[in-house]
């Protein structure tokens, strides 16, 4: 199945039996053998996953599977694109990590399960490479709407916006410059001026438009309007 919404990577331990299975999916699937042997056919290529063996199934590739004598595998369903760089099979360190993560699945250890997907990827990549860290997306439109609802009641500073985006002020400033091409102060002041102009166009007095847009005084709004005229 393809992704229809943002999804999290998921670790589990799965048991396979003699019943034949077949499917494909829109994410990477990583398997590491724990017990028994799982027979796979990936895009027409046969592969056997015994204890300590492993493979990376790319998105969209159909794979058939069965384990005539039964098998257990650690399975990671992952949306991390760096799995395309992974080596064909797991290293000794990966095998040891997989055994620990299988125990974490059985015991329901939340920290291990949260960090496990990234650690498994790091251990599987070739030496000298490292996965790119996924960044939390900033919904700039929603952030602007949040600020507009508060200007009339409290002063909004860049630090408040950064905290709302779960970033430090420095990180937020860098993302603002990178994604919007503006400094944080310029972006914030632009939002305020845009709202003030809209309120004035609706017929509100300068003092009320200034209050609802976060300006310190009507004269501060008047000066800003003159500068941007």
From TrEMBL:
Residues 141-229 form the HTH araC/xylS-type domain. Keywords: DNA-binding, Transcription, Transcription regulation. GO terms for molecular function: DNA-binding transcription factor activity; sequence-specific DNA binding. Pfam families: AraC_binding, HTH_18. Gene3D superfamilies: Homeodomain-like, Jelly Rolls. InterPro entries: AraC-bd, AraC_XylS_family_regulators, HTH_AraC, RmlC-like_jellyroll, RmlC_Cupin_sf. The keyword DNA-binding applies. This is AraC family transcriptional regulator.
């Amino acid at each position: 199945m393809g992704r229809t919404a943002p999804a999290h990577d998921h670790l589990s331990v799965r048991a396979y039996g003699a019943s034949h299975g077949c499917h494909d999916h829109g994410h990477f699937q990583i398997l590491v053998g724990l017990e028994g042997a799982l027979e796979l056919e990936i895009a027409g290529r046969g592969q056997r996953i015994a204890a300590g063996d492993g493979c990376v199934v790319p998105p969209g590739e159909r794979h058939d599977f069965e384990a005539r004598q039964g098998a257990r595998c650690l399975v990671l369903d992952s949306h991390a694109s760096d799995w395309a760089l992974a080596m064909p099979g797991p290293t000794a360190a990966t095998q040891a990590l997989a055994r620990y993560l299988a125990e974490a699945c059985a015991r329901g250890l939340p920290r291990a399960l949260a960090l496990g997907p990234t650690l498994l990827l790091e251990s599987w990549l070739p030496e000298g490479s490292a996965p790119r860290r996924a960044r939390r997306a900033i919904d700039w439109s929603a952030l602007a709407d949040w600020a507009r609802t508060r200007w009339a009641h409290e002063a909004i500073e860049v630090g408040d916006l950064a905290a709302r985006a779960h970033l430090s002020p420095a990180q937020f400033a860098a993302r603002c410059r990178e994604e919007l091409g503006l400094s944080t102060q310029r972006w914030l002041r632009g939002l305020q001026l845009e709202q003030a102009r809209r309120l004035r166009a609706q017929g509100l007095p300068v003092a009320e438009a200034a209050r609802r847009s976060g300006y310190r005084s009507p004269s501060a709004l008047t000066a800003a309007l003159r500068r941007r005229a």
